[in-house]
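Newbie here. two chains, one complex. Structure please?
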Amino acid sequence: DAKTTQPPSMDCAEGRAANLPCNHSTISGNEYVYWYRQIHSQGPQYIIHGLKNNETNEMASLIITEDRKSSTLILPHATLRDTAVYYCIVTRPGGGNKLTFGTGTQLKVEL
Amino acid sequence: DTGVSQNPRHKITKRGQNVTFRCDPISEHNRLYWYRQTLGQGPEFLTYFQNEAQLEKSRLLSDRFSAERPKGSFSTLEIQRTEQGDSAMYLCASRPGTPTGELFFGEGSRLTVL
């Protein structure tokens, strides 16, 4: 699986968009980008995933650059409950599809 | 609640004792995973099952650790002769057999070895 690089921490004002970047410059053609988050003392929670096209669901949007070497997770209207560690993971589908977590980005949403 | 269930949620034990954790996955999911998470780190993969077959084990899974999924439903993770370094959160996850299906995690079982 390709290595990912994320900033260790970010702050965001409540109600504003939170844009979380992820670099994955060694991604290969069949690898997907997944985002999970982990709220304190809970198990990780799936957010979204994509291959090359931008994706949107009820939680977030995923923007993947055309060369696929980086991506951004967008929480359009962050709330205090979005305070969590956000993990960007690159993996190929099939097989075990186990996830290799890094240390993620600690997002703190403040009033 | 039809999510992934883990028991016990917390376990305190003395060094040298054996402990067992149980995971009940989402019923239609045929893949089940165990992860370990220590403070400040992301979860680390330990092992996974497809139905009752254990298909991959991490080098982190020493011979003191054993995992089973006897009927392809619930799974157990046993740690024998616990050491203080085993103190961690043990997370279970499951997913359906689709190639890009996401993992659904349980709340975890926190182990403290004194």
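Moderator note: Strands of chain A lie at 9-13, 18-23, 32-38, 45-50, 55-56, 61-64, 70-75, 84-91, 105-110. The first strand of chain A starts at residue 9 and ends at 13. Thread marked as resolved.
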